Batch of 2 targets.
Target 1
Amino acid sequence: MTIEQQKVVTIHYKVTDVASNEVIDSSEGGQPMTYLHGAQNIIPGLEAALEGKQVGDELDVTIAPEDAYGEYSDERIQKVPHEAFQGVESVEPGMAFTAQTEHGPINLIVTEVDETEVTVDANHPLAGKSLAFSVKVESIREASEEELQHGHVHGEGGVEH
Ligand code: ZN
C-alpha cells in the first residue's frame, strides 16, 4: 500500500529549525503521529513529500516557509486597546490568547504591553522558518467512511469523539 488520498498514515518524525539547527519536535521515544492523507491535517510540504511512500520508507526533506507555516507577516502584528482583554487580570508579554474572528479562531501571542496598548502577534510561532523533517513511515491503512467525512483520523492517534 502506498500513501495517497484517503489513506490513514502513521509516521515517526523529527523536525528541526534549519536556521538554528534546533530540534522543534520529535516523536522519538513517544507516540508516532497519525494523520489522514490529503485532508490538510499536516503542512503541505510534508504531505507532498510523503505522497507515494510505503511502510518502512525513510525520508529527509527540507520544507520552505511557504509550504510549512507560511511567511512571517508584519501585517499580523496589531496594537489593540487594553479593553480587548477584559477579564484578564494582568496582560504580560508571552501570553497566548485565542481570538474569535470572522474567519474563525486565531492564536495570538502578546509581544509588548504599554500604558495605552497591547501589541499582539498572530503569526504562527513557526512562520518564516524553513523546517527539516526526518520521517519514517510506520503504517498505512484505508480511512473509514466516517473519517473521510470528518476529515481526520479516529481511534488510536486520532480524535476521540
Ligand atoms: Zn471525527
Target 2
Amino acid sequence: MTKQFTDPTLCSSDITPESSYLNRRQFMKSAVAGSSALLAAQPLVSKASDFVGVDTFMSAEESGWALQAPDVLTPFTDVSGYNNFYEFGMDKSDPARYASAMTLDPWSIRISSDGGETADIQFEDLLRAMDLQERIYRLRCVEAWSMVIPWNGFPLAELLRWLNPEGSYRFVQFRTRYTRSEMRGTRSFSSVIDWPYQEALRMDEAMNALSFIAVGLYGKSLPAQNGAPLRLVVPWKYGFKSIKSIASIHFTNRQPQTSWQSIAPHEYGFYANVNPEVDHPRWSQRYERRLPSSLFSPNRIPTRIFNGYGEYVADLYKDLDLRQYY
Ligand code: MTE
C-alpha cells in the first residue's frame, strides 16, 4: 500500500516547465539501472518481504491534493544548480560541476550499531524493498535561502524498521561516502570539515512521519549534486541536517557529534530546528530568500517556526528549551 503525504499547502500542479515527470515504471527502471549482482540479504535485513512492491510511485497530482499555495515549486535548474555539497567545493555551482566524479554504482551502505552488529546493504536491494512516494517539502538552509522540492523516496521510519536492529537505540547516525580521489573539495586546503560529513537524529525524530530518504527529485533519479543515490531530508530542520550520499548508518545510545556542530558549536547545534526567533550569531533567521531570487526580485519571505511543519513535529520538543537546544 502506498502511503502518501504531502503538505496540503504545497502542490505540484504549480510545476514549472522543467518538471517533466517520468512515469513511475521509468523512474523505477532508471533508479535501479546498472544494478550489479545482488548480494544475499545480511542479518540486519530481516523483513524485506514486508515491504516489497515497486509499482507505487505516485505524484502529488495523482494523490489529489488541491492547489492553494503561496509555495511554488523551485525550478529543476535551481534545485540541481545551486547546491551545498562541500565534498565537491564551496561554491554553489561546484557540486553541479564536479559531483558527477562520484562513482554511484556499486553503492553499498554499512549498517552498524553500538551492540556490534554490522552489515553491508546494496543500494539496489534497498530500493527494491521500499515503496516509493513523492513528498513536496520546503528546504530551508541555515544560510537563509530556501526552495520547494518534489522529492521521490520513502520514509526514513520504513527504512529503519526494515533494518530492524537488535535492541533499541536513542540515536541514528549517518555518514556520507568519503572518497578523497573523487571529491575535490575534501582535498582542498580551505576545507574545514573533518571528513566524512556526519549527521544524526534522535530516534523519535528519525521515526517521525516527515523524515524522508530521497532517491529522486522531480521524478528522476537524484542528481549527484543533490546527494545521489540516497540522502536524508528533514524538512523542519536547517538543510545541513539533510545529509547527502549516505554510506553508513549507525544505531547508538550516545548523542553523536555532527559535522557542523564540531566545527562551530555556538553557531550550529545538534537540533538545528528552523526557528525565526533564534538567530545565527552572525545573521538573522527571521527571513529567507526563496529561490529563484535576484537583486531586483529578492523574494524575501518570513521564516516559520519548524519551517511551517510545527503541526507534525512540535510535540517532539515540548520539553526542550529551543534557545538552549538550537
Ligand atoms: N551533505 C553533505 N555530505 N555535504 C554537504 O556539504 N550540505 C548540507 C546538506 N547536506 C551538505 C550535505 C547543506 S548546508 C544543505 S543546505 C543541503 O545539503 C543542501 O541540499 P541541496 O544542495 O540538495 O539543496
